[in-house]
Specification:
This protein is mostly beta strands. 6% of the residues lie in helices and 28% in strands.
Length: 154
């Protein structure tokens, strides 16, 4: 969105890593803030909280710029995903940049990961630590445990 009185758009991303209770703020694809955030912003235990674009619960001034695009993603975005999203610009949802692709599918209540080559890794957070899984494609994810992140080995 452009700052008031300018034609300069700024790409802003907030993402929350539930596993380590940390929020991240990016401007134009670069991390500008990171902090521990107690209280998961993705869970509304007491009904829908006040969720606005351009105003707050406090007597702050209203936002006076324009929004070109607004997106909501399900899950945490890594720094690379934020940078790719910023580089792609509005009206484009970036896909895999290069190399192999990890594909997921939900089949009869089971989460199945498939890939053509390379090894699969798992981590408790999007930042790691990453551990190799001795598995072949297709791989059925255990949905009974805690959440996890999966990727192809670099």
């Amino acid at each position: 969105f452009p700052a008031a009185g300018t034609e300069t758009f700024t790409h802003i991303v907030y993402t929350y890593d539930k596993a380590i209770e940390t929020g991240y703020l990016y401007l134009d694809g670069k991390l500008v803030g990171k902090a521990k955030q107690y209280g998961d912003p993705t869970i509304f235990e007491f009904g829908m909280p006040n969720m606005w674009l351009g105003k707050s619960n406090w007597p702050d001034p209203y936002f006076t710029g324009d929004y070109q695009e607004f997106r909501i993603y399900c899950g945490f975005m890594t720094a690379d995903q934020v940078a790719e999203n910023c580089e792609a610009g509005p009206d484009v949802i970036p896909g895999p940049v290069s190399g192999d692709e990890l594909v997921w599918a939900l089949e009869e209540g089971k989460l199945i990961l498939t890939w053509e080559k390379g090894g699969l890794e798992v981590a408790p957070t999007a930042e790691g630590p990453w551990t190799a899984i001795n598995a072949a494609s297709p791989y059925e994810v255990d949905l009974t445990g805690t959440g996890a992140f999966y990727r192809l080995a670099e």
